[in-house]
Amino acid sequence: MIEFHDVNKSFAGHKAVSDLNLHFEEGAFSVLIGTSGSGKSTTLKMINRLVEHDSGQIRFAGVEIRSLPVLELRRRMGYAIQSIGLFPHWTVAQNIATVPDLQKWSRQKVADRVDELMALLGLDPVLRARYPHQLSGGQQQRVGVARALAANPEVLLMDEPFGALDPVTRGALQTEMTRIHRILGRTIILVTHDIDEALRLADRLVLMDKGEVVQQGTPLELLTRPATDFVREFFGRSELGVRLLSLRTVENYMRREPQAGGEALQAGMSLRDALSAFVARQCEILPVVDDNGVPCGTLHFRDLLAGEVKREGHA
Ligand code: ADP
Ligand code: MG
Q1: Is 75 helix (H, G, I), strand (E, B) or coil?
Q2: Is any ligand 1 atom within 6 A of the Cβ of residue 41?
């Protein structure tokens, strides 16, 4: 869907990114990760031409982006950032409708779209007429994401979108994003410096350092087959076990047996979250339900400690 071929960008003689070769697949949730100043935001902004590349090629659905009118390109790509940039004197509904209004959608179509997106992002309809300063940080961020999605963009670009939020709100929004990605199947490219966020969200990870791509692949590949010492250090040797837990799901460890009592875990939940649930509830066995809330088995605390992934009976 989006390809970089030998892309370079300098600011006043200083190289921000060098020789980028990247491939962002259609429908995938890709995450650009790296320390501050490694060139992540520059890479993202080159995709919608907020920053123009100096050399090399960037292709969007096969077409070099320089040959597309900027407005058309941006219409096809939603963009959400940390500082949100909601218009302070516009209501939630008006903010979400920014792009559809520019495109002169009919009033009814815009109103329906706002309702649909508010439901998708878990925003209570009473918030429709509120102004940004009357919302919590998490709600503002949800409105920012809804606005970016409003005109059905083919690609959603997100730059540290949850950076300013407290850990609980942030976790909730990460879960929402995974769900939204599953429902919409849209191509998403997200920038973060937060390793746990990256592992939680990414189908594909691109690790950057000093303006270069150090390694790209699935989270599991980067964790278990780091290309360099830098990659290994970056993901932290000591926390590797915990991080691997966040990549495996309850379903991988679940026993297909009759239900235990207690509040159920979701089959798609990460083992790391499941572990927290065991600790919080102080029990040994918890029931598991599938995506539709139908009971499908149980998870035993000691199976998590055993470490071996059980794949029998697993589709
Ligand atoms: P990251 O998002 O990974 O923190 P950036 O892409 O923002 O990194 O920045 C990469 C490098 O480019 C940094 O050295 C930064 O100072 C420089 N840079 C980014 N944007 C500009 C700009 N508009 N003008 C000058 N230098 C910039
Ligand atoms: Mg940045």
Answers
A1: helix
A2: yes
Q: Verify whether ligand 1 is closer than 6 Å to residue 16 (CB atom).
A: yes
Structural domain includes residue 100: no
Q: How many domains does the chain have?
A: 2
| Structural domain boundaries, residue 6 | 1-76+160-167+187-235
Q: What percent of the chain has pLDDT over 70?
A: 95
Please give the average per-residue pLDDT across 259-287, as a whole number.
Answer: 86
Q: The CATH number of the domain where 302 resides is what? A: 3.90.1280.20
Best of 8, 9, 11, 158 to mutate for ligand 1, by most ligand atoms within 8 A of CB? Answer: 11
For residues 227 and 215, the answer to whether their CB atoms sit within 8 Å is yes
Please work out whether the CB of residue 11 comes within 6 Å of at least one atom of ligand 1: yes
Degrees, nearest 5: CA angle 22-26-32: 40
> Is the pLDDT reported for residue 238 higher than 70?
no
Higher pLDDT, 158 or 261: 158
